[in-house]
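Table S2 (text version). Query chain:
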Amino acid sequence: MALLELNHVSKTFNPNTINEKKALIDINLKMNEGDFVTVIGGNGAGKSTMLNAVAGVWPIDAGSIIIDNQNVTGLPDYKRASLIGRVFQDPMLGSAPTMQIDENLALAARRGKPRGLKWGVTNSEREEYRERLKILGLGLENRLSQKVGLLSGGQRQALTLLMASIQKPKLLLLDEHTAALDPQTAKKVLEITKEIVEKDHLTAMMVTHNMRDAITTGNRLIMMNEGKIIFEVDGEEKKNITVDQLMKKFAEASGEEFVDDQSLLSK
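Corresponding structure-token output:
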């Protein structure tokens, strides 16, 4: 059963001006429950635009978006929040730096639920958060009272990933969430991502510039160029494809060379 459907989705920025940009052109995509789709493409290909369309950051011009059998096309982002968890590229987004680790997790766990007069984090909640933090392997389970703003970028991104998935959303959106991290930390956060998605049986979409990460992560890969999906691969074929083959596929589908520093460095 399809958990996410994009039907003929289009989006143009600054229409009828000199800066007009057709960001998405008649996008059709279905993701089944449990799919982990990686999205690759050069700068301006439409990757993050597609993620923002799903999240409801701005309205689309045409088409429809269905999440878990709900037509969310006309809904703003806050009305889709109960269905979606999201991790951004910037580790500083997605968490409150002046609040403690346990308070941030409590905010995420209580999102969308009725709020009483009592704010304090209970002992039972702390125990739950401690257990959840152990999966990160960063020792944060012993630092619940530490302010999040004092964490490193990698620690904060791992915590944000935990916060985004704590309510087991219908759909987890990962927008180049390792791009701002050093290679070793990025590798660790990606490993944690895979573990959380598998453990909680989440459906996820990950935008990345890194072709190798796109190949080794998830069960499906789609490639975008100039607002269109130009190539898709899944299953055993995806597992066995190489970066060179992927670049060749891009050239065949788009009629141009794939030139992107981050992607080329990933080889």
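Notes on Table S2: The longest strand covers residues 2-13. The beta strands are 2-13, 21-32, 36-40, 62-67, 70-71, 84-87, 171-175, 204-207, 220-225, 228-234.
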